[in-house]
Records
---
Amino acid sequence: MGEFTTLAISAVLLAGFYAAMAYGLGLIYGVLRIVNLAHGGIIMAAAYLAWQLFERFRIDPFLAIPIALVVFFGVGVVIYLGLVRFIPRGPAGAVQSLLLLFGVWLIIRNAAYLLFTGNEQVIQTSYATSSVTILGGGFSVTRIAVFGVAIVALLGLHLLLTRTYLGKAIRAVAQNPDSCTLAGINVERVYLLTFGLGTALAGLAGVLASTLFAFTPSFGAGELLKSFVIIVLGGLGSIIGIALGALVLAFAEVFAVYVVPPYLTSAVGFVLLVVVLVLRPGGLFGQRVLR
Amino acid sequence: MLEIRDIDVFYGDAQALHGVSLTVDEGELVTLLGANGAGKTTTLRAVAGVRPVTRGELRFDGAPLHTIPAHRRPGMGIALVPEGRDLWPQLTVRENLELGAYSRPARARRATTLAEVYARFPVLEKRSRQLAGSMSGGEQQMVAIGRALMSRPRLLMMDEPSLGLAPVVVTAMFAAIRQLHAAGLTILLVEQNLARALEVADRGYVIETGHVALTGTADALLTDPAVRTAYLGL
Ligand SMILES: Nc1ncnc2c1ncn2[C@@H]1O[C@H](COP(=O)(O)OP(=O)(O)OP(=O)(O)O)[C@@H](O)[C@H]1O
Ligand SMILES: [Mg+2]
């Protein structure tokens, strides 16, 4: 019982991080119908940004979050204006968008190798080894803080999408861009802001990841794939869908220790993905549109 | 108020409009009639700015319109209720209406306009929290018209609002159009239901394969022998 509870809490904490990590990818896909292959590269770049801010200026990674949000919103805007804007919308542009954004990822990754070498980095905060006891299990303070930040970010996003004019416009563009133009919405501008927002969320995920894991310039590939698994599982329908997808993946990974050796747990998500795609191509929890 | 002067519109290499000209004056209800594929929708979409015009001129209140991007035109008072309604099905009725007031001038008066739209279509207030996609065809058409009204238009264009509706609902729809016109709104109405449209309209244009074939007052068109044989089956 004790071990089960501990693992379950671990899974929930991990799911919070996963949901925040996947949301940027889901948002961009839901609105622009583009799989942002640069997502993993942004996560990695944000981890390096947090590390640099910590090493050079002693800025705590959690305090670096606002900086990363602004920086990566800007990065998203630049990628959109420089590349994504020119890709034809819809199926015609699918292959182009994959290739272009994969190219962006390679550029970011190689730039990181040049700047920071391939050495593994960690951010050693003063509280990195502190932990608290919850229901008999020890949990690191960092993981709890990451969970808290992720929840706040998801709630903020939910309020943005449901309560503001911009948020409603984003959801409307996801459902029918033509009638948005007729309603006076500048659809291009919504695409730009959505791409910026999705990239900022990837940046947030990268900063959070930098407090949990060691990273190299190759970091982010697994995170991209897991994000993809989550949006396929949960659909794009709502924050709830993403949260459910994240919970399923996190529980599957955490509880996989009972059945597979530790080095195989990261493959759990992909097995899950294949099973779902074969059995329920619409996703576990349905809703293929952002609402 | 609206002047369309000799416009050409293409889809790729295929020309959909050949020198179409048409005017709508302040307070008028003008109907644009014609068979399937004649170019009615294309004409409205050109005025709304979502279809580019390759030749000719569009003017609104005497000022050139074709240089203004489509998303700015609702703010100037031009609204289109598109063919097939084109709602956002997964947003609530209320969200659909609110987004109709997206342009700056309309946004400032959103609450007032919403109350007016609810007064005109009470069922929308009752269903305000329902997803638009789950409503019946007639109710969806009311949402589409309500959404256009939320922009406080001076020119309301409607593309086949009676399409696919049950006969009693069609009657209600034309009654609503008549009321909007009586309240002073300028309307450009596209219809395939000629008899019904000419009943409510002041003037009409008949368009055939991208050309204006006939124009006149509604009464003159109703009694025109060519219209009666070709479109009314009399
Ligand atoms: N998206 C499109 N791509 C290519 N051709 C189009 C497109 N839309 C319309 N057309 C063509 O342009 C011409 C005019 O079409 P339009 O939709 O304006 O006709 P309409 O009068 O509205 O017809 P309907 O009564 O069927 O709605 C037709 O020949 C049609 O085939
Ligand atoms: Mg049409």
---
Amino acid sequence: MKQLMTRRQLLRLLAAAGLGPAIAQRTVADLASPAAARPKIAENQLAPPSNRPCYPAVMRDGRVIQPERPLAVIEETEVLVVGGGPAGFAAAVAAARAGARTALVERYGYFGGQWTGGLVLLVISSHAREDGRLVKVLQGVGGELLDRLSKIDGAIVHHKPDQFNPTTDPEATKFMMDEMIREAGVKVFLHCWVADVVMEGPVVRGVVFESKAGRQAILARVVIDATGDGDVFAAAGAEHERRFHAIGLVHRLGNADRAGLESLRANGIKSIGSIEPLPAVKWINLRGPSTDCLDIAELTRLEMEHRRSIWLRAQQLRQKPGGEPLFLLQTAPQLGVRISRLLAGVQQLTYEEARQGRSFPNTIAVGGAQNAHHRGWPIPYGVLIPRTLDQVIAAGRCICVDEKLIEDMRLLASCLTTGHAAGAAAALAVKTGRRPREVDIAQLQQLLLRQGAYLG
Amino acid sequence: MLTRIATRLGQRRASILSRCLALAVAAALAWPARSAAWTSVLLPALSPFLAIGSGLAARAAGWIALLALPVLALGLVRPRWFCRYGCPVGLLQESIRRCPKSRPAPIQRRPRLGPGLVLMTFAGAVLGYPLFLWLDPLAIFNGFWNAGRQPWTLPSVAAGLGLPLLLLLELILPRLWCHRVCPLGATQDGLAMIGRQLRRAVRRSSARSQPISAGGRLPPARRQFMAVCAGLAGAGFMRHVYPRPSAPPLRPPGAVEESRFIGLCVRCGNCAQACPSSIIRPDLGSSGWAGFLTPILRFDQDYCREDCRRCHQVCPSGAIARLSLEEKRRRVIGLAEVSLDACLLAQGRECTACLRRCPFDALDMHSPDGGFSNQPRVDLAKCNGCGACEAACPVRPARAIRVRETALAHPQAAR
Ligand SMILES: Cc1cc2nc3c(=O)[nH]c(=O)nc-3n(C[C@H](O)[C@H](O)[C@H](O)COP(=O)(O)OP(=O)(O)OC[C@H]3O[C@@H](n4cnc5c(N)ncnc54)[C@H](O)[C@@H]3O)c2cc1C
């Protein structure tokens, strides 16, 4: 209970004081306006009948057949971002700021993907070391998000100039992502699960998604696949590889500040979790077994098994001396899928190339080192562009790098920077009327620099 | 009389000219391009002192030993030929000598240490520990050049001090080194004497006996005997009594067993200079005082590449054995060891830096509690201690995975 109180207090704090009166006022006004625009609806009032046509699947010769049907196009936009995780968020903000009409479709009800919904709170690889100097590679949209979080009390830790790998509060992160998306003027569709693409010949023209409103379509000039799993490019038939990886479930313990750490240590519990901005809460990573994240039977089994073992383990902890006050605050709303599909891009970046810091003429971001003690590496534009598909750009943890490097590139900071680059590239492609693969690299790099990105 | 002076002068000029040339060649050999690192072995390999000492100690002689043969053969017929025409150290000393014309009066009174050093070294070598091999002037010369190409750190500066010290000595006590100490010079004296004996024997057999002019004399037999005993005792002490450090340092792959290594290594710095990963550093203490400036491995920046054996190729003394690439890959430098208290993976972080980096697939992920906590596990059958994991580990200040010395590192038992 205490935790929920703290949370509410935090939110109130955010709204009231967090970013100074100007932003707070704007925020409150924004929150108020959509509601004000709608006529007040009495509770439990009868709704008008839906005019949605029905096209149910039918049985034909013992097979389930989906009849052909027209889909409502609810939006036509220039840049469409699918997936609102770190990559999708950064892409949408960057594209909109670059002047493109931008929409974002997300299957869940919030932004941040694994970061907020997966409770993966530690932003690894935000920095690298160049000639002994600490360099911040996470700049641009993602860097701005962190900087703005640092202006809110209790939203981020380890974000001082000489620090790296900050940890953020998930609710503060969601809040600030909402803010930035709104400010950038991105049109958002939450609770919409993209199920397919709209193709015209070899070119992707938009996506089809499912929601409570049924199956609908959005058309776009360029689609950014930031689903983490490459749902868009896979649906469009782009070449890719599928990988099995460890799937876990992150969870959090409450009352961590009241636990007797000394006694717990004496009983073999070295740590109860990783630091969070809220002193009372710790988050715990769980690796889990390596399996197929596209197999729903596996996902179902894992979700339930993980939750069971997490519950049991938390109970065990509570029975240890010093662990009594601890409680299981939350298991992550999203299962922790690390790697699933990797794009076959026009260019592949390998672990060895990254290790040697190979430079590229088409660098669009710089990868950061695990603990900021090693060198960063340039990331070329080609890793975002499907080899065999047009009008789609990939970003985040499904881009074209080898199986070793993806372990670094899937970390939050890199997803934010590749997302930013994808967004800027998409906007530029729309503006200059070119295909994403033909975007002028010098122009793209200039745009990225203007948007505050770090290119080395 | 005049003609004699003239020829003397001519000889002198020829000697200086030839040695200047030799110095230039020596410097070029010792300062090779990275891709031609192997040339640095050529200069020290010319030394018969080094060749005999290391050959005895290592009980083996590679093709490198052949390089010393011409010098050795010429030494039999021409006393101190190499000193006069080849030695770069001698030339440098001569060039800074304050009064080149002054008679070497001061050193006449000093004892001749050279023959003793040579005898002690060769006697020790029989027991596997050539005591003063590191005094070879050509190794010292290389040590200077090699150190000059390293970034300036305390160990690298220390490793290059040999030649400057010799020059300093020359300023204080002119000619002392060349005429009284240098074991390479003394070896040539010995060779010259052997040559005379041989010639005398030949002449006797042809029944034309002639008086032999005095040259580089050898010390009296009693002293020779004492030097041999001292060499044997010293080597015995170093091999069996000298205390080993509790945590022996990591040596380049192929290094001979530790108690012989510190004796065989001539501190020429060739291996450190040739190493493309710059993981070989001169030691300032971790292997005890006797191991001063011997090469040790540090994996803080890089690791021992699986496709490289340059340190083997440039070692002039066989302290680092010449292994084939296949043998080298299998040779154990040490074994990786994980410190679970520091390991990020063990603390629930998304880190697999060491697992991905291992060129031998010797690391896998292991969970002692069904997936909650994980840790890297070392497959001791596959790990050869190349240090890739240590170099890749992002934990500071101490790495969470480190290569430790192991008894496995030296498959051949102490001989
Ligand atoms: C257990 C675990 C621990 C981790 N720990 C760390 C860590 O400590 N530090 C770190 O930096 N990184 C960590 N990572 C990695 C990092 O969290 C992810 O790789 C990163 O969030 C990927 O970002 P993304 O935007 O590419 O994809 P995601 O974060 O997966 O975001 C994808 C978004 O797209 C949405 N989406 C997916 N499919 C569809 C669809 N069909 N239609 C509509 N929307 C869709 C999802 O709902 C989600 O919001 C961890 C990952 C896991 C799984």
